[in-house]
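#onboarding

Welcome to the new folks! Below is a worked example of what a typical request in this channel looks like: someone posts a single protein sequence, and someone else replies with the predicted structure as tokens. Don't worry about understanding the tokens yet, we'll cover that in week two.

Example request:
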Amino acid sequence: MNWKCNIDRRGRYLRGFIGVLMLAGGVYLVGWSDHAFWGCGAIAGGAFAIFEAIKGWCAVRAMGIDTPF
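Example response:
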């Protein structure tokens, strides 16, 4: 699969930051609350956002939707 870079540095930093926040929130939800289902979703979303930041690739942009970052 071709993972062509389609976001700039600002978009990569933003996705990385969002990914870290989602991972932390997901770990909190799984470990210290009764919302494990939502926590697992937040962990999966955070991991995907970090993957996008590392690769410089955005799934939404790859589908042809223009994003501001």
